[in-house]
């Protein structure tokens, strides 16, 4: 589990910012204050490790996240024109520095690598180019277990596809690859078989208080999905059931497929869901996280997701304890300063350690205006 992430010079973080992490992390705050920056730091490493098995050249454009060029991700106020990450897990700390890669603007070149304070990156300069010494090659990143674990990461984007009745059949598709937008969820459901579909249907029914689900091959070239909003065995095309079912489905499938000890990142799980369903979905994700030792990062604007955590804590869901979870609250009122990050803890009674301005207070503000 990643215990701490440090960021400097990347996107909205000009100055070095160290952020402690728990097993369950809710990223909460105003738009454009740094929530996505945290998630994207994980995703850039994950997509680069999946594609290349090392991070000598960080892929800024890929299947999971497409951020553009190096100049677009390095903080505009950073004089060095480099950005820096550090990740601390239970046993090790890795520190990574990246700079611009000439002629490859959609990549970033690794220029610093420390593991537990030891320099693992040694560059010898010649007259026309830099050569990495054989003894401390950047290829050693493939041997760092923490980086290897990023390859197991599951991710569900906020930009999920709506109702989709039929999907092209892709036999070569990884059975765990949903696609960033959930575009392959029908394929995955079909390939995983009836027992997995039954489990997904059970969870879907709990969250949305009723559901029927079936995914099966239509012919040699396509796979189709049927849903219903009640448990009566009837099946309809997703377009006739409602957006909420299609939007929550990739979230449920990703959580059930996440491997023990891996990382699961979900953006805006609350999309198109009734407030009660938002809270129940949060409790499901928390339950899976604790049961399977999955580190969970949820980017959300939903008070109901936050309250889902509070209820789970009070109910001691799967022996959930205050040390297992935190809310990372992002605020930023001055464009010339770093984003402000505050850690809010939840005690065993569901009470929060702090209520800063703009945190869970919009309803109160609106009531005051109405009165």
Automatic annotation (TrEMBL):
PANTHER family: ATP/GTP PHOSPHATASE, ATP_GTP PHOSPHATASE. Residues 320-370 form the DUF3696 domain. This is DUF3696 domain-containing protein. It comes from the Bacteria. One of its GO terms (molecular function) is ATP hydrolysis activity. SUPFAM superfamilies: P-loop containing nucleoside triphosphate hydrolases (SSF52540). InterPro entries: ATPase_AAA_core (IPR003959), Bact_Antivir_Def_Nuclease (IPR051396), DUF3696 (IPR022532), P-loop_NTPase (IPR027417), P-loop_UCP034888 (IPR014592). It comes from Bacteroides stercoris. Residues 24-307 form the ATPase AAA-type core domain.
């Amino acid at each position: 589990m990643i215990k701490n992430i440090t960021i400097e010079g990347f996107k909205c973080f000009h100055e070095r910012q160290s952020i402690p992490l728990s097993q369950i992390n809710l990223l909460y705050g105003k738009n454009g204050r740094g929530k996505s920056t945290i998630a994207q730091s994980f995703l850039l490493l994950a997509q680069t490790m999946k594609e290349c098995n090392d991070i000598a050249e960080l892929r800024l454009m890929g299947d999971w996240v497409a951020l553009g060029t190096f100049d677009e991700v390095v903080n505009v106020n950073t004089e060095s024109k480099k950005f820096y990450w550090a990740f601390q897990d239970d046993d090790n700390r890795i520190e990574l520095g990246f700079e611009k890669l000439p002629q490859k603007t959609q990549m970033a070149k690794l220029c610093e690598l420390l593991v537990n304070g030891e320099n693992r990156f040694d560059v010898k300069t010649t007259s026309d180019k830099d050569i990495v010494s054989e003894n401390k090659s950047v290829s050693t990143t493939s041997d760092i277990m923490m980086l290897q674990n990023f390859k197991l990461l599951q991710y569900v984007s906020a930009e999920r596809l709506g109702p989709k009745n039929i999907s092209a059949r892709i036999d070569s598709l990884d059975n765990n690859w949903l696609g960033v937008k959930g575009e392959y969820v029908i394929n995955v459901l079909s390939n995983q078989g009836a027992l997995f579909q039954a489990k997904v249907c059970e969870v879907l029914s709990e969250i949305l208080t009723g559901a029927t689900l079936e995914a099966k091959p239509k012919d040699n070239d396509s796979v189709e999905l049927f849903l219903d909003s009640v448990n009566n065995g009837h099946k309809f095309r997703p377009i006739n059931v409602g957006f909420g079912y299609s939007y929550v489905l990739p979230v449920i499938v990703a959580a059930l497929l996440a491997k023990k000890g891996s990382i699961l990142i979900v953006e805006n799980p609350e999309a198109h869901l009734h407030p009660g369903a938002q809270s129940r979905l949060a409790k499901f994700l928390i339950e899976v996280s604790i049961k399977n030792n999955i580190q969970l990062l949820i980017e959300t604007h939903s008070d109901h997701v936050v309250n889902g955590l509070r209820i789970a804590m009070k109910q001691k869901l799967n022996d959930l304890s205050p040390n297992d979870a935190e809310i990372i609250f992002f605020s930023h009122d001055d464009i010339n300063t770093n984003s402000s990050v505050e850690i809010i803890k939840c005690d065993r009674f569901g009470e929060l350690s702090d209520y800063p301005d703009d945190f869970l207070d919009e309803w109160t503000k609106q009531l005051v205006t109405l009165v």
